[in-house]
């Protein structure tokens, strides 16, 4: 039985846990060699080991998106094993970035969120492009908070809005290299990073979706697999909300 990503080598950032781990696992299940990257060295090693034990082909590298030298060194190491066929820019600061209104928001926290979520996404993409084969796909993980303007989460919302805009600009440039880049905007998903989210926010989402109920990681992975696969070979610069119809793009 053939998988959607047979023969492809895919890099996933923020892959130690949460959505990133599920992206990595689903890519491996579809036949890809998966390069898992994360700043959480211990959790990354455990997650990579668990997938190897299941028979999947996994590489793992520690990376810090706030450090350009770390990004460059990581992709230099990845390059030693050859080219890549896809990239999932999933890593981001999402925990502990909300709660304060715009008047009281900490400017230093704002800078850290932007440095990782926006600049880090750009730097990872920049480092990956020389390794990407023609026809490769990149998926930037944004958030539907940027579409409806979630309150008391300003830096995160602004950073994900920037990722959406950046995706469109990158698509114009990378198209010359026949590299596709798209973004997904997941809704609030039941993963470790959202355990801090108040119950009323979860209820707002779960009751407001056209497909009512809690969003699970498995609800998001299919869109990423499609965007990485040859089935989406003429799709670039697009945003796909994956939120059960909480908000329409």
Low-confidence stretches: none
Strand percentage lies at 15-25%
CATH class category = Alpha Beta
CATH topology: Rossmann fold
What would CATH call the architecture?
3-Layer(aba) Sandwich
Strand order of the largest sheet: 3-2-1-4-5-6-7
Q: What helical percentage do the residues reach?
A: 40-55%
- The helix/strand series, from N terminus to C terminus, equals EHEHEHEHEHHEHHE
What is the oligomeric state here? single chain
Count every beta strand, where a strand is a DSSP E run of 2 or more residues.
7
- CATH homologous superfamily annotation: NAD(P)-binding Rossmann-like Domain
Calculate the terminal CA-CA distance, rounded to whole Å.
35 Å
Organism: Pseudocitrobacter corydidari
Family: Belongs to the short-chain dehydrogenases/reductases (SDR) family.
Protein name: Pyridoxal 4-dehydrogenase
Pfam family, one: adh_short_C2
Report on this structure.
The chain has 249 residues and is of the alpha/beta class. It has one domain: Rossmann fold (3-Layer(aba) Sandwich). It is globular, with a radius of gyration of 17 Å. It starts with 8 loop residues before the first strand and ends in a 7-residue tail after the last strand.
């Amino acid at each position: 039985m053939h998988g959607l990503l047979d023969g492809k080598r895919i890099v996933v950032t923020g892959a130690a846990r949460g959505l990133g781990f599920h992206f990595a696992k689903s890519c491996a299940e579809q036949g890809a060699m998966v390069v898992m990257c994360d700043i959480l060295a211990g959790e990354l090693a455990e997650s990579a080991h668990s997938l190897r034990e299941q028979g999947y082909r996994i590489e793992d590298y520690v990376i810090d998106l706030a450090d350009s030298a770390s990004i460059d060194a990581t992709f230099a190491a990845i390059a030693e094993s050859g080219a890549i066929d896809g990239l999932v820019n999933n890593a981001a600061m999402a925990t502990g970035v909300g709660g304060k209104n715009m008047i009281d928001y900490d400017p230093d926290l704002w800078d850290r969120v932007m440095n990782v979520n926006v600049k880090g996404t750009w730097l990872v993409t920049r480092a990956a492009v020389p390794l990407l084969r023609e026809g490769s796909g990149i998926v930037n993980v944004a958030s539907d908070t940027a579409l409806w303007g979630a309150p008391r989460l300003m830096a995160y919302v602004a950073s994900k809005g920037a990722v959406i805009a950046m995706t469109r600009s990158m698509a114009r440039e990378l198209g010359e290299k026949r590299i596709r880049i798209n973004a997904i905007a997941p809704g609030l998903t039941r993963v470790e990073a959202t355990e801090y989210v108040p119950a009323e926010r979860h209820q707002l989402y779960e009751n407001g979706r056209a497909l009512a109920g809690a969003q699970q990681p498995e609800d998001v992975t299919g869109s990423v697999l499609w965007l990485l696969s040859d089935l989406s070979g003429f799709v670039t610069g697009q945003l796909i909300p994956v939120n059960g119809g909480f908000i329409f793009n």
